[in-house]
């Protein structure tokens, strides 16, 4: 079995070694122009030439959970595209979002400011019942985040394309369910995939429907958020702040107004990083399953965009 790896910008050696160890029957090579078509390809941001040349692979494995960038390329028709599902990302995402929610609901930013001036001042905490959290996207990551917040005692709402059932989570779905979902959120967490239907979904209209003084956590994709609308809603007081991990342009340009904004907390797209060992184990298991003629989780519906 031949496996080709293509991940420009990332160090290929640990992936080549890891895949070879997990699939001893396979020969694993880094892609270069002219290589014969492999059985399987493992990719992150591959050049179009690689996708064209390797059009006959049995499956293309993405080294991430989101495939929006890959779907902007021309994929060979009928390609089985498989993304990472969880592979160690869900727990990181839950940890990141719980941290952002606690920072907002417990007022940690104010205590941090107090500490720089040696001020000892206790404030009444916000009641959990007054801090319902809404999660857009109840998929692999959204469900894990919802469970973690529910277990911390927050009222949790979720919004998805199709109806989803999750214990202790109030579920909303579809465009008709969006206004009611938004109206119930004090904190909005975005964990949608980026598709034609979700691009720009965090805008003046949707964010304006949140409870007054709401807080936004965007950990999905920068192109979900209309950045000027966020700034306007922060200025008007409709939103009290946001934690942003993803941006329309990454790295975020040094002169971007977000950097200087006092009510924004920014991180450089690190809320859930690909875990190499778990990802390799998952891809190897899926290749074994496909070889046995079984179906695997994480197959992308290319027409739907996720
Ligand atoms: N910042 C980071 O470090 C980082 C890391 C990993 C992933 N991510 C982002 O997180 C995203 C989510 O990952 P995941 O693995 O949880 O994806 P997933 O399992 O595919 O879940 C996607 C969820 O979004 C819902 N959805 C999709 N389109 C919708 C629409 N038009 N209206 C309402 N709901 C819609 C789906 O609804 P159904 O349940 O009805 O299908 C599903 O619940 C990824 O696509 C990626 O962009 C970011």
Q: Which tags fit this structure?
A:
five-stranded parallel beta sheet; 12 strands; 306 residues; 11 helices; seven-stranded parallel beta sheet; alpha/beta; binds NADP nicotinamide-adenine-dinucleotide phosphate
Which compounds are bound in this model?
NADP nicotinamide-adenine-dinucleotide phosphate
Question: Proportion of β residues?
Answer: 15-25%
**Tally of alpha and pi helices:** 11
Quote the distance from N terminus to C terminus: 28 Å
Q: What topology does this entry show?
A:
Elements: E1 2-6, H1 13-22, E2 27-30, E3 40-43, H2 48-53, E4 59-62, H3 68-71, E5 81-82, H4 89-105, H5 108-116, E6 133-136, H6 140-151, E7 156-160, E8 169-173, H7 174-183, E9 187-190, H8 204-208, E10 214-218, H9 227-236, E11 239-244, H10 257-260, E12 264-266, H11 276-291
Parallel strand pairs: 1-2, 1-3, 3-4, 4-5, 6-7, 6-9, 7-8, 9-10, 10-11, 11-12
The structure holds NADP nicotinamide-adenine-dinucleotide phosphate.
